[in-house]
Amino acid sequence: MSQTHLRERSEWGARAPRSREHVPWDARTEFVVHHSAEPAMRTVRSIQDFHMDDRGWSDIGYNLLVDDAGNAYEGRGWQVLGAHAIGHNTSGVGVCYIGQDSPTPAAKAAIRALYDEANQRAGRRLEAKGHRDVNETSCPGDHLHTWVHNGMPVDGLD
Which pTM does this prediction carry? Predict the structure, then answer.
């Protein structure tokens, strides 16, 4: 699968992070799928504002984000320590579907393309997991969790 166009931080108006910690690819073993559990019209910037202003984090928590149109966004970035899954922020690349538990085929295709790109960048296959596989939560919802565990198929998405 080809790489998806990743909208860089400057394209979505990201604030500067308070700090950044680099994570080498050899430390990455997982690709952790989340959902924002909010309306799909939520913007990446509003998620960043919530994470920085309300939670006091150094930046948006996720490494990458995807919306229903299939747009992919750079959150913290591929090799930056995330704040998305306790105990798995170094080992896991965190990707967040912006929405509840009803991703469109375009959103699923973008998540899968990011997973394929993560594997290519790592030089090996990362283990695909839902957030609930690593922390006590209902995230990423039943639909997304099942899809991840079925291998994130791109054909017959719904």
Answer: 0.94
